[in-house]
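We modelled the chain as a single entity of 436 amino acids. Its sequence is:
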Amino acid sequence: MPVSIARPRSLRGEIIAPGDKSVSHRAIMFNALSNTGTASIKNFSPGADCTSTVEIMRSLGVEITREDGHAGMGDSLTVKGVGLNGLQEPADILDAGNSGTTTRLMSGILAGRDILTILTGDDSLKSRPMGRVIKPLSDMGAVITARDGDTLAPIVFHGGTLRGTNYEMPVASAQLKSCLLLAGLRADDKTKLTQPAESRDHTERMLSAMGVKLTKTDLEIVLEPSELQTVDVEVPGDISSAAFWMVAGVCHPDAELLIKNVGINPTRAGIVTALRIMGADLTLLDEREVAGEPVADILVRTSELKGIELSGDIVPLLIDEIPVIAVAAAIADGETVIKDAEELRVKESDRIQASVTWLKGAGVDVEGTPDGMILGGGNTIGGGEFQCYDDHRLAMSLGVAGLISSDPITVLDPDVAGISYPNFWEIIEDFGGMLG
């Protein structure tokens, strides 16, 4: 059912960000492969993507309990490890839903096992490129077949024997990196990866905390085959989800928002850097470390923003936030140029084209480029009815736009926000931004 959002008179209050999706996925997967006991995971992401990971691990014989969260916190889970080689052959096809993270990381876990597994997902997931993980896994000795010349899901894992690898990654991708490191845990020798640029490092942090022999020097990672020790995880708040409120707070004409318990891992915090360069009034409070991850509360206030260029090494550190950064850039003073973001074209939607389409429809001066977009700045975002192409980040970016637009914005397919942020629209309603 469509939702319509209109700018409230003010935007003030506190928000607790939902549990980080990236950390939640890894906490379940890695502890499932541990062999030393049962792990407790708190503030687990309530979104559909992480639920897909839970259900797949259960299908592979992993014992997981789950209790709903309360008072704004995520869910509480326990997971009993089965060891690196303890997964059971599933009775049915494994469904990753809309989750690219689940698909690519599980590919590293399933590769080279002596069980038959088939991994698939929804129509959007089945259109996303999987050759980038299938090819290097095959080179490591895994026997894998997939649709469209071994490039698209469904993906079938037929076994094989994994060898160590020395691989130069063609893209800075945390999903590709994590996939190969997970496969390397069961390889016959070291796995060495060289990244073209830094990408989010949750996998390296958590594997190291679980006793894996892993070293990192600049952009090079070396992993030795290792057993995993169980570790309890308190998942920090998801900065990609917090980003929507950060942008809303700095763009609304009368705003002060405190977003609590946000993970500020340097490989994820590009949104903080970008907004500060744009002139955002953004302060990190109570900086601390939780389960090896840096965390802070983020205070944002109404700001005078200016256009900037986003390109190069910072782009992988904020790639998921670009659709909502475009909202801030639309009203900023001066031109914003976004480059080196061609990865956006193979996300849940073509996020470059989808963002440009709705922004133009709302009267914004914007042009798409092969690897990004150019926004003229100084725009008033108008109203209208827009689709989000089954893309949760597009849906929530439209929600933020409605909080600062001159006229109401209607999102025609809002339910997809539940993939990562089930109560997103409830928070907008609490702020007085929902019509009808």
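As a brief sanity check on the tokenised model: The first helix runs from residue 21 to 32. The mean pLDDT is 95.
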